[in-house]
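Colleagues,

Please find the record for the two-part complex below.
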Amino acid sequence: MKRKVFYLSDSTGLTAENLGRSLLAQFPKIQFESVTRPFIDTPEKAQNIVIEINKEAQTSQSRPIVIDTIVDTKVSRIISATECFYIDIFSTFLSPLEKELGTKSAHNVGHTPIFKEDSRVADENYMQRIDAVHFALANDDGMQLNRYDDADIILIGVSRTGKTPSSVYLGMQYGVKAANYPLIPDDLERKALPNALKDYQKKLFGLTIRPARLADIRNERKPNSNYAALRTCVDEVKQAEMLYRQYRIPYIDTTQLSVEEISARMLQRAGIERRVNSL
Amino acid sequence: MKRKVFYLSDSTGLTAENLGRSLLAQFPKIQFESVTRPFIDTPEKAQNIVIEINKEAQTSQSRPIVIDTIVDTKVSRIISATECFYIDIFSTFLSPLEKELGTKSAHNVGHTPIFKEDSRVADENYMQRIDAVHFALANDDGMQLNRYDDADIILIGVSRTGKTPSSVYLGMQYGVKAANYPLIPDDLERKALPNALKDYQKKLFGLTIRPARLADIRNERKPNSNYAALRTCVDEVKQAEMLYRQYRIPYIDTTQLSVEEISARMLQRAGIERRVNSL
């Protein structure tokens, strides 16, 4: 018996999803089934959602959970009248905030204006993020070694430790320019930092992973290969970690971490400031 | 006079930041200066933050705003004793949720277990996202045309309309496999869909942008070039939109949108289900 969850938003729904996931993760014994309904910014769209929620309430044994970040009270009031357990994030926090700040809130559509032409900061943020994503792509997997001067950080690690998604995420979320360089068996057997990296020791950050997990991941890609064999993974991981210690390169075990966690931890450990300014 | 905001978390801080940004965006006349302090998961780390918050409270004219997603009450209680305006997201919502669900919450460290070895769904999500990011990179900018069979969506548009970051984001956030193909002047003058795309019409999604904005973006990259000239941008955008209409390709104007908004709107318009299941 799954409990239904609706994430409702007048924008992308990401805030409602993030918050809802964190809250519901505290109830690991209950199974939830969630749907996101983004861009609900008119009373008409809200009416359609009301029908959907009420239908769910009638056919299910327990009423649905609704997590709502709709700012316009004309719209959210329509939702609140449904048969549901209702978490209204803006109503909950905006009134106390108005009191604290001594001013009324704009109460417009609630998305972050990351990219409005009238806001110079927002515009710079957009450009910074886009440039950093392009940088991560252009400097993925040891390509374009000549651009390491521009990198904020250079991720190193054996194949499939999470270098590529982490470097892309650093650009997307934080505007940080991350290159990445794969440690291949030839590099590892030499027991010395590859030449391409020698001038950039201070920018290096190592990724590592538990060998059994690495073997699983590699097996998805190349089943039953030498590349995916547990023995290969054990050797490569061991050699990579030795290299990190030898050169005092900070490193992180990605086995249990999401891309978001890997990235946030690396920034913190490396002491790199995000390039994108939030409000 | 900027108002200081602390985002505190026992995990990455992304949830606190997202929610805080949405809330504070409702007060456009007030300037905020924010810092994120992630991974505060012990009383000792909390004590260090307390010192930082209290120092800010003493040196500033108005008390700091603290937005907190720390789940462990032993830790968050330490924070709550500071001189601040305190938004405690978990305390606010967990008790009513416990009541609704008829069970106590785990109250562990509050990060989403996207990648735990004991959770098969989380694991599949991780692999799906990573694979989709790798797919976006391998199929960026018209490379590897032969893999369009595997794509969930193919983004098309003239240079610098946001194709690359959007396709990467679709993979990272939603596990959706997005290829992208640049419409170059040769394609546009032919007034016909490039051969490489003809078999995949149903997967195509167009990006467009206001020409003046496109000229700004291109000028950052290649100042004073023909590529960045307003006339070039006007022509290319016009021809691309004609192509979209001619082939009934859905398209979206990215001028005012963040990467998050572009991606969420495309999924909605194209009717593509996300591949990654949230809780």
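Residues 130 and 263 of chain B are 17 Å apart (CA to CA).

Comments are welcome before we finalize the supplementary table.
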